[in-house]
Amino acid sequence: MKRLIVAMLALAAPAFAQEGRLIATLKSDAPLQAKGDACRELARYGTKAAVPVLASLLPDRALSHMARYALEPIADPSVDAALRRALSQTNGRLLEGVITSIGVRKDPMAVGSLAQYLSSSDPDVAQAAARALGSIGADAAPSLEKALGDVAPVSRPAVCEGLLRCAEAVPAARAAAIYDRVRGVGGVPTHIRDAALLGAMRSRGRAGIPLILRTIRTDSLVAAAGAMRISQGISGPDFTRALAAELPRAGKAKQVLLAQTLGNRGDRAAATALEAFARRGAPELRIASIRSLAQLGWPSSLQILIALAKDADAGVAAAALIGLTGFPDAGADAAAMALLADRAPATRVAGIEMAVRRRIALAAPALVKAARDPDAAVSVAAFRALGEMAGPSQVAGMVAALLAGRSVVDAEAALLAVCTRQSDPAPCVAKLLPGLSAAQGEPRLALLRILGALGGPQALAAVRAATGSSDAAVSETATRALCAWPTADATPHLARLATTTSSAKTRILAVRGLLRLIPTMKAPDAAKLSQLEQALPLIERNEERAPALAALGRIPTARSLELVTPYLTGDALTEEAAVAAVGIGEKIAGASPGEVAEAMRLIRTSDSQLAGRVQRLLARVPKGAVEAGFRPIFNGVDLTGWEGKAGWWTVVEGALTSESTPAKPCTECNYLMWRGGKPANFELRASFRLSAAANSGIQIRTEERPNWDTFGYQADMTGDGALVGFVYHHSRGLIAGRGEDATFAADGAKTVTAIGDPATLLKRFRQGDWNSYRVVCRGPEISLSVNGFLMCHINDRHATEAAKSGIIALQMHPGPPMKVQFKDVRIREFR
Amino acid sequence: MTNARDTSLTRRRLLAQGAATAGALSLPAIVPASALGRGGALAPSERIIMAGIGLGGRGSGDLGWMLGEADVRFVAVCDVHRGRREAAKAAVDGAYGSKDCAAYTEMAQLLAERTDVEGVLIATGDRWHALASVLAMRAGKDVYCEKPACLTMAQGRMVVDTARRYGRVYQTGAQRLSESNHVFAIEMARSGRLGPIHTAYADIRWRDGANRDWLPAEPEPPKSELDWDAWIGPCPWRPYNSGYVNGGGWYHQYDFATDVAMWGAHSVAQALAGLDMAKVTTIDFEFAGPDKTMVTRLSSGVKLVLFRSPGSVWDPCKLWHGACGERFDGPDGWAAAADGYAQPDVSSPALLADFKKVVAEYASRTQRPMNHVRDFLDCIRSRRQAVANPEVMYRSMCVCLAADICEQLKRSLKFDLRKAEFVGDPEANRLRSRAMRAPYTF
């Protein structure tokens, strides 16, 4: 305890000091805002000490309110004295404020002074005084009662408000007298008289019953409704019956309110009375009675509601149905079953709706039966209900109904919903398959779609079999189901489909399926990648390249990173490629730091989060890990390992160099041959610099021809950049342009898709300066990048012209005087 | 709340309600409108006569919602801001294809003159909510008022007292209490399907009303454009700056708004609706640090967690993937709802199977439409208490404002819910009211 007091003193001490500062602020010539802030603080912890200065501000036009703001919560009686004193020091708004604060503080000593203001010539002041007196309560009531007759009409509502406030603070008998006084006064608006009437009834308890009944019988709807609300506080069946007795003789609107009032009473007597009104009479009253019966929820009301659910009056029938649907007693379930078996289709639909809303499990067999109902609306409703509620045991029945050709669309949706809801769909599939062999037409197609969505070996076998159907619709539906198969077991079938189909549309669907499923296979990454690499050549459009990149991103190997890398610097799909590359990189940075670092440096992304991941990844990779696997094929000093036409190739500034001049023109092509082998699958990198008029190139997979000539693919280049990023071929010419992806079929047919804008890509080339070329050859594919940006790609399956391997050589071209240079030439061969 | 924050939710909410209504069987109106009318006299039409007060921002959404109800007729609007007044009038006139909507600058004049008006929609800035509600009810109008309904507990109490005193219908704009996803979560808790609830959660991730600085003074616009004194209303005076008025800038300001309670008013009412509050006497608020989740312990043993996490209220967090959520945890599972949900979140899908049943039983037991505005309009006719009636409003705002005070004082507090006072903390109790500036007083 002692410790607590010490703690409290510790808390109080700074507050004390703070209060002193605040008081000083108020006494100073501080600006208005600072003084207002001080008052706001004093409202929290100001004491008696602050009262004098605050009191002095009450007549201050700018600070009177804030002074009240601080004073109102200070408990000390000196505040009340100060406020009373301020009454004579203020007028207008400020006086109104002071009076209000006295009311808030309920100061009984102010009653005499405030009463004088009731006759103020300023109506705002008079009304504020009336309300403040009301807040003070019992002590103020006589002066308000006295003023009620005298006060100016404009202020009479405020005096009434004051009296109503008083009445709420005094014992019931005194309150009743005050209320009676107010409702007896003339010349006040009806709503105030109503308020007094409400109080008069409320304050009397059971003794107020006659007044309640009289009010219901004779008075305005608002007052009568108030009487009914008050009646709810008085329990007992006798009073219930008395209220019910008012109903037949009441006006239409009051009848409805009385029916609601009876519903709120909750007793049996209310239900008994309402049942009669539900059966016959004006529709409004019947509906209100039905709603109240449902609210009361006595089981004995069920039979009436069931009967009314088929009433000729649509509103009545709807109310009964809604009432039954939400009826709190389980007996309403039986009502739903009865409606389900009704002769009228609309009633059967209503029964189905009820069964769903009440979630009646026992209704499932009846719903299966209703699914075969000859009435289409019933059948549709039943299937929808089954879709929400049915379990595996209803599937066979639902299939039978589907086969009957009823509401196929809804049947399919329902079966799908039921089957997919199960944790193991296999038992459902087993029940669908017999149906499939029996079904024809639309139901057969529906079953194929459902099986496709469910998956599993049995379904797969059935759907695969159907792809071979002679019925075109069946075969197409089955094929689509196969391409959309949810699980990876369809992959081999899709791979076969993709390569064998003659339909471009089917191939696209199959490829998309493969791209979706291959990453989900339960297989080593190498196996997935191998599958994926078989699918990649089938891709012809960016629409499939994007998911292909995503699929690669899910297979974390160095090879998949390599496949993604060219797209990092293309014009389209760079973001997709970046996401994939980062995803792979984060998993393989330890094993292949060089490849990862290199790929990360190529990423240009507008996604700041992704950029952050790139930076973190680069930080993880040790410096110098770049270019793992490459070996230099030019030593930077002399022509060791290379051979060319005498007099045309030297090493200058550490670069392989060839130059023609007016004095020494070049009249026919010659090539500097690398004697290190005939690589097939490899990546070659080199830096090159060209004079403005130069034309040159890097030969790859090339045949050597006599007289220092060659034949084959060339990574082309010209000093003005015009041919940079092109693949040239000696017999076929420029086979891929900058920004192109060119595919050659076995018969030489060429298809081209754009992978970038040639003009934009040209800007990556720096005229007259060193640039880097990167040539990747793998299988039928060759890609060229300049300064890290993908320029073109070819997929060459030409039967006679496509070379799988060959020498590497550098070109010196005839023409005007020119200079060509190459350095940092290195290669990495793929195993 | 009357600013842009909630309007982005409006369209989605309306769509959701449209979908919910379309699927349900619908009932004819229960009381013919002609039965109402001022003082029992028949109204000139079959419609409920309404007026709107302060209809910028959020209010324009509410107005659109009400204009869509066939049995409503707006006859007047009121705003101290000329632009908003004219926009509201244009919206009403546009909806009715007429030019009849009266435009008032002063609320007192509207309330005194328009005895034909039965109900008012109040969507002023938060600082005016309670006062406007009280003045309207005292003038015999029924009230639909946006949330938060009051800046202080004292103001909330006055709303409760006035509604009871005059027998008025009052609905606070806690519209989620009428949305089926929230109703489901609440009923799952109430009905015992989750077992005895041990923890409830309410989303209070947004707080933004603690600023006490003044913006630089700007020349006051002419009264015909904006009545600055009336705009401030019951709050401490300060020089004009357009930043308070435009874009909802006022809601950063302590003097004009609430802090934690502003967002709490979006979720706490739902959380309390799912709990058995009848036996709750006190609530312990545990202050864990500024902007931290605030655990409160109800005397019934239930933990009510006022949840916070960094980021926007619309970001997914560990409890919800939408704003304004509540969640109830019991031994047999949990259920949660928040804005933008296609369906409630539950601990196991089996709980959701009863969705329609739970909602239908709720509708039957309470006879409520799943449409907050419709509930208010029905209650104008039936004179029933609305679903978000003054007691519901007051209890939830007391919890919200107690959290506000806890945050201001930076200490744990014990709150007596029945007396609406803190136990043994006079300083906290002094923050339960703020003196109102004359003539804008109760």
Description:
The complex is a heterodimer of chains A (831) and B (442). Chain A is built from 39 helices and 17 strands. Chain A is of the alpha+beta class and 831 residues long. Chain A has a domain at 634-829: Exo-inulinase, domain 1 (Jelly Rolls, Sandwich), CATH 2.60.120.560. In chain A, the strands form two sheets. In chain A, strands 1, 3, 4, 6, 11, 12, 13, 14, 15 and 17 form a ten-stranded mixed sheet that branches. The two termini of chain A are 84 Å apart. Chain B has a nine-stranded mixed sheet. In chain B, β12 (333-337) and β13 form a beta hairpin. Chain B has 442 residues and is of the alpha/beta class. The longest helix of chain B has 20 residues, at 4-23. The two termini of chain B are 21 Å apart. At the A-B interface, α2, α4, α6, α8 and α10 of A face α6, α13 and α16 of B.
